[in-house]
Structure prediction request, 285 residues.
Amino acid sequence: MNVKKDRIYKHVEYLTELYPARNHENIKSLEKAASYIEIEFSKPEWIVENQYFEVSGHEYRNVIASFNPEKDKRLIVGAHYDVCCDFPGADDNATGVAGLLECARLLDEYKPELDYRVDFVAFCLEEPPYFGTSEMGSAFHAKSLLATKQNVLGMICLDMIGCFSEKPGSQNFPMDELKSWFPGEGNFIIVAGRSYQAEFTSKISKLINRECTKAFPVIDPRLKELLELSDHRNYIDIGINAVMINDTAMLRNMNYHTEFDTIEKVDFDKMAEVIKGCYNAIICL
Prediction:
C-alpha cells in the first residue's frame, strides 16, 4: 500500500505553521485550514460539501468529501482541524487531518469496490471551550445524519496518531492494573469505544492490525476520560457505532495541549503504519 510520507508531512507542516493558531477565536486561520482541506479533498474530483454552522456569532464549517456517493449505506471517517489555545497542535490534531486526507487519497488511487459510501469529514470546534457541548462541529454533523435518517454503518475518528516511543516506561497508565494489559513502551495505538459497542470496537481493531501491529481495543469505562476524548462521542450519543483511533494522548504525549506539540515530535514512519491500518478498516468494514 502506497502511503506517501512526504504528503502527510506536508499536511502536518502546513497546519502547524498557520499563524495565529487555528483556534476558535482565529477565524481567518481556521478558514485557511478548511480551504486547504477542501482543495485536497477536491483533487480526486469527488463531491465536496461544506457544512456551515454558527456558534457565538461566528460562522464555522465542516468540510465533507464523499466516495461512492450513490450508495445508501455510509461510513463516516472524521478528524478535527482546530487546536487548543494558541498551540501548534501537531499531534493534536494535524496528524489526524493528515491521516484523513491520505486515506481519502488512497481510496482514490486504489478505487476499491465497496457497497457503501465513505464520507470523510474534517470537523471544526472539537477543542475547548466547545468540547463536550452541542456546539462541536461533529455534533452538528451527527445531528444532520439523524435528522435525515441516514443509514450509517459506523464512524471512525482519527485524533492524535503521531506520538510513539520504543523507550521502556514511555507509556503511562492511570491504574496499575493496566500495566499488565498494554506494553510499557508507547509504540501502539488504541481503538477506543464504549463497552456496549465492544463488537464494533474489536472489529475495527482487528482490521487495523492486519496492516498495523499493536492496535488495542479499549472499552473499559474506568478510562472514560480517554474514551470520550474526541468527536466520536457525538455519534455514539445518537446510537451510531463509533470509535477513536488514538495514541493515548496525555497518557503518552507529554506535549499534549502545550506549545511543544510540534512537527519535530511526530513519528511519521509509525504514523504511516497507522494510516495503512485505518485504510484497511475503511475498505473492509
User: Anything to note?
Assistant: The chain has a mean pLDDT of 95. The helical segments are 5-17, 27-42, 90-110, 137-147, 198-209, 224-227, 233-236, 268-284. Residues 5-284 form a domain with the Aminopeptidase fold (CATH 3.40.630.10). The chain has one domain: 5-284.
